[in-house]
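ARCHIVE CARD
Drawer: 12
Card no.: 0347
Subject: one protein chain, sequence and derived structure
Cross-reference: see card 0346
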Amino acid sequence: MTYTLYIGDKSFSSWSLRGLLMLENFNLPYRSKNIGLYSGHMAQDMAPLAPARLVPVLQTPEGDVVQDTLAIAETLAERHPDAGLWPRDASARTFARWIVAEMHSGFGPLRETCPMNLRQAIDGFDVPEAVLRDLERIELLWSTAQERFGRADSPWLFGDYSLADVFYAPVAARIAGYGLPVGPAAQAYVQAHLSDPAFRRWRAEGLCVSYDPVPYENAFPADAERRPWPGPARLPARAIDHGPSENATCPYSGDPVTDFLELNGRVFGFCNAFCRDKTVNDAAAYPKFMTIYQS
């Protein structure tokens, strides 16, 4: 029973990120296929999924097609009642549905002014008043969930990771990327998302794609000060031209190695440039690589 998830570009498609996190962080089997949002081929890529016209799109193992992240969320929760997508407590589940629906339909100023861009972060962004009001509302929803239903040993809104966290992951990315002003509790929640291995892998793979021009580049003011991405510090891996490597087969595919990286004086090999480059971008996010690195 394997789902197929059709997604947009990983650096920019906030809705696609939600779709991926629903499957990845609840251990539901899936494969992903890319739709070319910025390649000029989107309509052609989407044609077999009609009447779906926007990403993400989920195709069930039976062949049913579901568009829209809220519909996908409810479909998966219905099909996998024991996976814990919604909080198990009835009151927590009620509030989680509320704040997911509010995220799904609201916060237009934040979405429009600060489109998700996982490729860079800035300081000194001039935050409009309407966005500040959105942030104030978001902080209230987050703090209410954590105070009523959270746990001291967990950073997530309802104790265990849930669909509520899935839906607010792109908000966390916007706060991080634009340096938006929120309080310490909200910043801690943002950092939990930036540290989530599934989020880190999504971002690392998005960085492997080149764009000319870069989408949404004009959302960042030309005079804004660029700063390092505020997630966990990446290991100092770098691509190199040749081996030999410590490993003979790729940690992901098991195929013979053809492309190489160097990390702390050691050389590791991969079956293609993409496998190498995503690892260069955030090696610690990939357990299969870290297993051979730490051996």
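Annotation on reverse: The mean pLDDT is 96. Residues 129-149 form the longest helix (21 residues).
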